[in-house]
């Protein structure tokens, strides 16, 4: 099986890491894997991919929860069909409580499962190439590119201030 | 997460900002429309609708001004530097706080047309609900709010403008003293707002239905003021952004939107807490308030509309991040909230005083136009003079950075 | 103030996990276990002898167990406030305390959930209230506040655990990388293969934001639903519209106090003073000034509205509550919940550990007394004089109350030794925020 050509780099601070991301974006290099010990929400604009389906899946889960809550309440009230105080067996005001709670319950659980699925998490050890320093204080950028681009990318990353740069050529089948 | 602001020397050169003549023209014309409408209606054989229109608009516009100023105080007390410009915008409501006192005095003269208990026998409750005591305590509260607010604005304005011209060494000592003074004034104002808004909610709205009571009502009324006040702040900040010399980032719009959304949620919650408790026990002394609004037209339809445009609608719209980050959509939602809260205040009053009314009287919004004019005429001169960012804000920012 | 390097966050926070527990730690765990065992014995005794061994009897059918239930649910609220609500408002100081606050929530809700079961007496029939399709066509009454309670508290427990766990995933990965042997395998399982890659962060942050957005209305709704147990009734002192936000404000008040009570010793024992600084505790104390003021407002409005209503039952009850046999609890409530935390408005009180700890303990006690006053008083003195009576907890109830505190602390002790007590990733993010802005 052939491995793709890539340049792996490690950065020790945020300014050089951000500088590298900016340069890569200017050069049109978007096939990246980026590692950081923190979420870095402020750098969203520099990242190659920004969207996430988690929000919409959570919304869907919440709507399902709301529907289930009201259906359960209204359904069971109509099942008994007891007229109390001259009112319709089902009352919408009290059922808002159950409907709301199940909205939150289903929405929350869906958010967790959506995150696990979208991020491809699972109860397994990290891959062999994982560098635990990215969990501590280092930032990493892996640039996937053509073999002939390896050297220019290497120079670009070193120029931005990378502490370590490693080139990996694609292996033959 | 900082707001970019001009340098201090640019600020002093830019002040006071020039208010275009048409703004004052609009204000005067609006006051004329409102005043003429009220004047014509109060001279009619039945002046009750005029006084009720005045009451509704007093309740709404004074709570907007009080809420906006309380936000200014809250931003100062919470020492968040991103909100410095919004604090100043909230301070511009000072003038209308003074106008509220005058309108409240005017309301005294028409009290028999909107307060059903004026000539009623309330038993021992007349110790609390009697004309001199009600108007005295509410009037003193409103006046105290205005005076404290004036002291707050004066302290802030003096320092901002003066200390831009001082050296760092001279300013630091004064800043610390001023910081303590503003904290004391701010806390007093916040507590006073809670008391005054609760009293007005109890005295001028809850008492409109004799025998009805809800312990949460005062709190609900004061939160409504904060909600409408925040909507006013958002609209003003976005519409006048360029004139005020502000550069508001996407994140700040989101923060404002989050605050507005939070209060939409809180208003919905307070409304629901009362509605559910009253519905559940079905006690006549409590349902007397709800029945015209649930069972009689046009209030039934209007109530449903109010629930959606005032509470649930803005909440659902503001849950979407893009609605908050875009200033146009945020301003549109804030405008919806502003109008809806006016409508809500109308629904708090009208069904209580005229449960079997038909149609929507045009007089109420016309008088409201007059109040809008008064707000413009009192806020514009202050906004022209207030710097959006001062030395005290810079010091707070430096202290925060030192924590890192 | 010295700047903490990023790697030092990992080292200092994970040190507590991998250092050998001291004898004092094992001593405390043993003591707490004894307390739990004693509580379990008392519960078994109660089941075997019947509910008569508890002090609850006519007319006070809800006593210490329900007070404890409401109290512990309330304690949990500050955790969700700090971790969810303050996250949405991007308040920076929360990062040092949010993890422990969330843990406190989870354990508090676990503790609270025991009390309806204990109070039930015949605990084996608790499943009657669960809504599930059965061949008897039996469903709970969804209009009942007690059923709302079951749904709300269960939802709160599940979402709190979900939120707590989701927030911990990056930190569990950090623990995995530092651990060896069996512990490494456990952390590996829990960390779900986290590698800090941007794709993971992207979805993680979105999910965390969604959970925070969902938990925010949840925290308000749960204690409101608990308050509806009382507000939906007819009893004087219970049936009032203000109960929902009153309970929520009180819950946050008691929760913040408990956060301070737990964090002050924890930061010393686990050598985390550089990370959990005085200014973090100071912010929590300042919030208590606000919640204390809200409670003061409610304490003033309630008797006023009772008088304003003109209802003779409400008026007589209000007077009895302030001047009757339980008046000591009523006035202690005012003193401990409103006057004591007002001292936090003074800088000296909120920047010194001793006053902070003392005031927080007073608030915690005061909030328990407030629930006692609310629940017991209204039951003891309702409409008909023939129906009036008093309540005194028995040794069984007192023992189970003490055991619940042992249960809560036991879990907290376990957590402090096996899971990261401070959010490593969020603490680093707070530190790096200005650097990122400057770099852009």
Features:
heterotrimer; A: 173 residues; alpha+beta; Alpha-Beta Plaits; 2 domains; four-stranded antiparallel beta sheet; 45% helix; rod-shaped; C: 440 residues; mainly alpha; Formate dehydrogenase/DMSO reductase fold; 15 helices; 0% strand
Describe the structure.
Chain A has 173 residues and is of the alpha+beta class. Chain A folds into two domains: 6-37 and 137-168, 2-Layer Sandwich (Alpha-Beta Plaits); 54-118, no CATH class. Helix content of chain A is 45%, strand content 12%. By secondary structure, chain B is an all-alpha fold. Chain B has one domain. Helices cover 78% and strands 0% of the residues of chain B. In chain B, helix 2 runs antiparallel to helix 15, helix 3 packs parallel to helix 15 and helix 4 (84-91) crosses helix 8. Chain B starts with 7 loop residues before the first helix and ends with a helix. In chain B, 47% of the residues are buried. The model of chain B is unreliable at 1-11 (pLDDT under 50). By secondary structure, chain C is mainly α. Chain C contains 15 helices and no strands. The interface between A and C is large, with 67 and 66 residues.
Instruction: Please name the CATH architecture of chain C.
Output: Up-down Bundle
Instruction: Give the count of helical stretches of chain B.
Output: 16
Structural class of chain C: mainly alpha
Global shape of chain C: globular
Question: Most extensive interface, residues per chain?
Answer: A-C, 67 and 66 residues
Give the amount of beta strand of chain C, in percent. under 5%
Q: Let me know the average pLDDT of chain B.
A: 88
> What form of chain B results from the Cα inertia axes?
globular
Number of strands of chain B: 0
The CATH topology of chain C: Formate dehydrogenase/DMSO reductase fold
Whole-angstrom Rg of chain C:
23 Å
Which oligomeric form is depicted? Answer: heterotrimer
- List the uncertain runs of chain C: none
Q: Would you tell me the structural class of the helices and strands of chain B?
A: mainly alpha
- Cα Rg of chain B: 22 Å
Q: Give the termini distance of chain B in whole angstroms.
A: 14 Å
- Work out the helix count of chain C: 15
Helical fraction of chain B equals over 70%
Under CATH at level 1, the class of chain C stands as Mainly Alpha
């Amino acid at each position: 099986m052939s491995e793709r050509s890539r340049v792996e780099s490690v950065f020790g601070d945020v300014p050089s890491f951000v500088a590298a991301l900016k340069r890569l974006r200017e050069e049109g290099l978007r096939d990246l894997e980026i590692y950081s010990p923190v979420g870095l929400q402020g750098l969203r604009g520099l990242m190659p991919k920004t969207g996430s389906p988690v929000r919409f899946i959570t919304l869907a889960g919440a709507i399902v929860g709301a529907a289930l809550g009201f259906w359960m309440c209204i359904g069971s009230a109509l099942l008994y069909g007891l007229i109390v105080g001259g009112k319709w067996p089902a009352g919408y005001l009290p059922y808002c409580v159950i409907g709301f709670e199940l909205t939150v319950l289903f929405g929350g659980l869906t958010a967790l499962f959506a995150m696990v699925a979208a991020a491809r998490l699972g109860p397994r050890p990290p891959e062999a190439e994982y560098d635990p320093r990215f969990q501590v204080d280092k930032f990493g950028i892996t640039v996937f590119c053509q073999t002939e681009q390896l050297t220019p990318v290497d120079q670009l990353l070193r120029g931005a201030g990378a502490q370590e740069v490693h080139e990996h050529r694609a292996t033959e089948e | 997460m900082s707001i970019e602001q001009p340098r201090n020397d640019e600020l002093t050169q830019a002040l006071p900002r020039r208010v275009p003549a048409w703004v004052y023209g609009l204000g005067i014309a609006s006051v004329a429309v409102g005043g003429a409408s009220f004047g014509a209606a109060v001279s009619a054989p039945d002046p009750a609708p005029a006084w009720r229109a005045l009451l509704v608009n007093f309740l709404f516009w004074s709570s907007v001004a009080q809420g906006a100023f309380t936000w200014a105080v809250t931003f100062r007390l919470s020492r968040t530097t991103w909100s410095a410009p919004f604090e100043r915008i909230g301070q511009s409501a000072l003038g209308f706080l003074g106008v509220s006192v005058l309108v409240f005095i005017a309301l005294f003269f028409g009290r028999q047309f909107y307060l059903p208990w004026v000539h009623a026998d309330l038993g021992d409750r007349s110790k609390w609900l009697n004309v001199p005591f009600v108007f005295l305590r509410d009037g003193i509260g409103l006046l105290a709010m205005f005076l404290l607010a004036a002291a707050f604005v004066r302290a802030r304005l003096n320092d901002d403008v003066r200390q831009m011209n001082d050296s760092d060494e001279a300013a630091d000592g004064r800043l610390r003293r001023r910081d303590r003074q503003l904290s004391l004034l701010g806390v007093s104002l916040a507590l006073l707002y809670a008391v005054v808004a609760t009293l007005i909610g109890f005295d001028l709205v809850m008492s409109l239905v004799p025998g009805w009571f809800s312990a949460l009502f005062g709190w609900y009324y004061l939160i409504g003021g904060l909600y409408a006040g925040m909507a006013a702040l958002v609209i003003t900040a976005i519409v006048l952004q360029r004139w005020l010399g502000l550069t508001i980032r996407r994140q700040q719009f989101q923060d404002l939107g989050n605050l507005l959304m939070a209060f939409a949620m809180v208003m919905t919650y307070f409304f629901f807490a009362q509605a559910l408790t009253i519905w559940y026990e079905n006690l006549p002394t409590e349902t007397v308030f709800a029945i015209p609004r649930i069972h009689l037209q046009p209030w039934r339809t209007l109530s449903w509309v109010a629930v959606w445009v005032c509470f649930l609608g803005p909440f659902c719209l503001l849950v979407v991040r893009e609605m908050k980050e875009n200033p146009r959509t945020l301003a549109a939602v804030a405008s919806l909230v502003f109008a809806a809260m006016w409508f809500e205040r109308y629904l708090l009053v009208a069904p209580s005083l005229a449960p079997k009314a038909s149609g929507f009287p045009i007089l109420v919004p016309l008088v409201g136009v007059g109040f809008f004019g008064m707000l413009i005429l009192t806020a514009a001169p202050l906004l022209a003079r207030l710097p959006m960012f001062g030395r005290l804000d810079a010091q707070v920012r430096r202290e925060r950075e030192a924590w890192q | 103030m010295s700047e903490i390097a990023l790697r030092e966050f990992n080292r200092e926070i994970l040190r507590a996990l991998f250092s050998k527990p001291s004898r004092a730690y094992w001593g405390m765990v043993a003591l707490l276990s004894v307390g739990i065992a004693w509580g379990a014995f008392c519960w078994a005794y109660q089941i075997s002898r019947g509910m008569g061994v508890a002090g609850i009897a006519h007319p006070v059918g809800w006593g210490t167990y329900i007070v404890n239930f409401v109290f512990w649910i309330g304690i949990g609220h500050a955790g969700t406030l700090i971790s969810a609500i303050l996250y949405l408002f991007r308040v920076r100081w929360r990062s040092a305390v949010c993890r422990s606050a969330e843990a406190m929530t989870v354990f508090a809700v676990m503790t609270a959930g025991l009390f309806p079961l204990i109070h039930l007496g015949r605990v084996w029939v608790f499943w009657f209230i669960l809504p599930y399709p059965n061949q008897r066509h039996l469903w709970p009454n969804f209009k009942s506040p007690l059923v709302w309670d079951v749904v709300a508290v269960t939802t709160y427990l599940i979402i709190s655990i979900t939120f707590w766990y989701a927030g911990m995933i990056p930190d569990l990965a950090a623990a995995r990388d530092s651990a060896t042997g069996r512990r490494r395998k456990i952390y590996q399982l829990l960390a779900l293969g986290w590698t800090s890659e941007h794709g993971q962060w992207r979805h993680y942050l979105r999910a965390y934001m969604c959970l925070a957005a969902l938990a925010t209305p949840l925290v308000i709704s749960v204690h409101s639903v608990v308050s509806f147990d009382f507000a939906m009734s007819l009893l004087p002192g219970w049936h009032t519209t203000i109960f929902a936000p009153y309970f929520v404000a009180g819950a946050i008040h008691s929760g913040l106090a408990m956060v301070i009570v737990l964090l002050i010793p924890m930061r010393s024992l686990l050598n985390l003073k550089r990370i959990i600084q005085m200014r973090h505790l100071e912010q929590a104390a300042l919030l208590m000034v606000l919640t204390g003021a809200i409670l003061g407002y409610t304490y003033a409005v309630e008797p006023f509205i009772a008088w304003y209503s003109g209802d003779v039952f409400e008026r007589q009850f209000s007077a009895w509550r302030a001047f009757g046999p339980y008046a000591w609890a009523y006035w202690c409530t005012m003193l401990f919940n409103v006057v004591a935390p007002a001292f936090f408005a003074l800088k000296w009180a909120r920047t010194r550990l001793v006053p902070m700890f003392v005031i927080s303990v007073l608030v915690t006690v005061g909030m328990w007394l407030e629930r006692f006053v609310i629940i017991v008083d209204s039951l003891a003195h309702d409409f008909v004089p023939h129906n009036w009576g008093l309540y005194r907890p028995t040794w069984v109830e007192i023992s189970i109350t003490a055991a619940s505190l042992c249960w809560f602390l036991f879990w907290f002790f376990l957590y402090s030794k096996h899971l990261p007590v401070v959010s490593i990733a969020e603490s680093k993010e707070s530190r790096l925020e200005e650097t990122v802005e400057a770099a852009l």
